[in-house]
Write a structure and sequence with these properties.
Layout: E1 2-6, H1 13-24, E2 27-30, H2 32-45, H3 52-61, E3 64-67, E4 77-80, E5 83-84, H4 92-102, H5 105-119, E6 124-128, H6 131-135, E7 141-146, H7 149-162, H8 169-185, E8 198-201, H9 207-225
Parallel strand pairs: 1-6, 1-7, 2-6, 7-8
Antiparallel strand pairs: 3-4, 4-5
């Protein structure tokens, strides 16, 4: 099956997607990492991020691979020109510039094609902003995961504090609200709920409880498909 999941930033899609994929023996990929990887590559090469043609050419020249970091792992990571960019894509300069790359129509078309090629064999959980509405509108299971901006900011604040990072909750909340606006107002494939998606508000749920709700839907769809 193809399980597609969308939702705003900081809602827990990667955690939930990883839990669901592991339980099913599927692969999981966070498609946002592709945009972040290209942002890092563009910054490293000194490209003008607002030059859409130059950034698209850079994306097309690069060698893209998606594979687990650890043997037998469920989560597929992005390798760009042979480099596993897991750490680089978390850099602040990448975080603040990735929305510029994500707004590039040519890049979105190119990466959507990669995402389809990756997911078409099935046995995958794929999360992003336009997976249920654009990349896999006919996915077997579609999920829209949500949570209040305040709860998302609290989770991110807790995560940063736990990792020893400097965390200002009000700044985190402001960044989340700005990113939400960018995602919703984007001209090319904006974030929106697919009409047939299962909408889950995770504000008062644990990630494991959310994963269980999704697995219940997966089992139901699998039974109907028999």
């Amino acid at each position: 099956m193809i399980i597609a999941m969308d939702g705003p930033a900081g809602v827990g899609k990667s955690t939930v997607g990883g839990l669901v994929a592991k339980k099913l023996g599927y692969k999981f990929i966070n498609t946002g990492e592709m945009y972040r990887a290209l942002t890092w590559k563009a910054l490293e090469s000194g490209a003008d991020l607002d030059d859409h043609e130059a950034v698209l050419a850079l994306a097309k020249r690069a060698s893209w691979e998606f594979k687990p970091i650890e043997e037998g792992g469920a989560t597929l990571k992005t390798f760009l020109d042979g480099v596993p960019v897991t750490g680089q894509i978390r850099e602040e300069r990448v975080s603040v510039n990735s929305s510029r790359i994500a707004a590039n129509p040519g890049v979105r078309k190119f990466l959507s094609k990669l995402q389809r090629e990756l997911g078409e064999p099935g046995g995958i959980v794929m999360e992003g902003r336009d997976i249920t509405t654009h990349v896999f509108p006919d996915a077997d299971v579609k999920i829209y995961l949500d949570a209040s901006p305040e709860e998302r900011a609290t989770r991110r604040h807790r995560q940063l504090k736990a990792s020893g990072g400097d965390a200002d909750r009000s700044a985190i909340l402001a960044a989340i609200l700005k990113r939400d606006l960018n995602d919703l107002k984007r001209e090319i494939n904006p974030l929106k709920q697919a009409p047939d998606a299962l909408v889950i508000d995770s504000t008062h749920l644990t990630m494991r409880e959310v994963a269980d709700l999704i697995l219940r839907r997966v089992r139901r769809e699998a039974k109907h498909a028999r």
